[in-house]
Amino acid sequence: MHVVVIHRWREVTPELSQALAAALEVTAFDARQRLIGGGPVVAASFADPQRARDVAEKLQKSGFAGFVLDASAASGGSFVVRRFELEAGAVRIEAADGLRDEIAYGEIDLLLPCTCIAGHTESRTVTERKFSMGRTLMAGGVPLTKKVKRQEEVTTEEREEVLYLFAGRRAPVVLPQNGLAYDGLGEAMKLSRELNFAYLKSELRRLSPQAVYDDRLLKRTGQVRLLGPVLNPETNLDLAVRILARSLRGAG
User: What is the 3-state secondary structure (H, E, C) of 37-97?
Assistant: First the structure.
């Protein structure tokens, strides 16, 4: 899948909405919905890369800044951190497989926190007792009940905050709140994962004052706004992060 991303417009004008509607072959209302929020936003997605490039070129001629991103190529390749240490001049990181790296604070240019939302649906059998008219009549009017079983779909939702760290041309570094060991904080270690993760974020921001910090993906509304009406945040969060990072770094 190839997504066409637009960004950097300052205000939503009727002319801008009409230009987007014409390029995407949608209604002016649908086009205006994509423009709410200032971008970046996925304007369209195509299986055919040439079709995506053609639409992007058409949008550029209409005054839009943007780029095309191969969603399959954008996913994966991240360094998922299991352990870390905040040293004097750099953060040391280690993956679950033992791979290690070190990033100088001065090299960090983007810190993007987001919320990973995972939904799970399961079917369970619920047993209830309901009034039985037939059994009541047979018992001479004494109210009786009977057991009734029914299937019920139960949906649960799990949320986890994740911090994406970008430094130059390195692969994105992913720090998952629930997947980290916090003993690297030493005496600064707190009593809960939430407090430890909040402390880690604040320290990375303090130690990397030059890094851009953007938290728009912390809420699902921000994720939906960026990914547009077609892509699901639950399965495309990593893509949303890559799009935001590329936009903030000046692509298009």
Answer: CCCCEEEEEECCHHHHHHHHHHHHHCCCEEEEEEHHHHCCCCEEEEEEEECCCEEEEEECC
Assign domain 1-74+219-252 to a CATH class: alpha beta
Q: Can you tell me the distance from the alpha carbon of 69 to that of 27, in angstroms, rounded to the nearest whole number?
A: 24
Question: In what helix (H) or strand (E) does residue 29 lie, and over which residues does it extend?
Answer: helix 28-35
Q: Residue for token digits 């995407």? A: 24
Neighbours of 26 (CB within 10 A): 17
Q: What residue spans define the domains of the chain?
A: 1-74+219-252, 120-155
What is the pTM assigned to this prediction?
Answer: 0.81
Rounded-to-integer distance, Cα 151 and Cα 244, Å: 42
Helix/strand/coil for 199: helix
**How buried is residue 214: exposed, middle or buried, by Cβ count under 10 Å (0-12/13-18/19+)?**
middle
Rg (alpha carbons) of the chain, rounded to whole number: 25
C-alpha angle 173-38-177 in degrees, rounded to nearest 5: 25
Tell me how far apart the alpha carbons of residues 151 and 88 are, in angstroms, rounded to a whole number.
Answer: 58
More confident residue, 17 or 113: 113
Answer positive or negative: Cα dihedral of 214, 220, 223, 228: negative
Are residues 12 and 52 in contact, defined by beta-carbon separation less than 8 angstroms? no
Concatenated DSSP letters for 127-181? EEEEE-HHHHHHTTT---EEEEEEEEEEEEEEEEEEEEEE-TTSPPEEEEGGG-B
- Does the pLDDT of residue 120 top 60, yes or no? no
6-47 pLDDT per residue, tens: 998 878 888 888 888 888 888 888 888 888 877 899 998 999
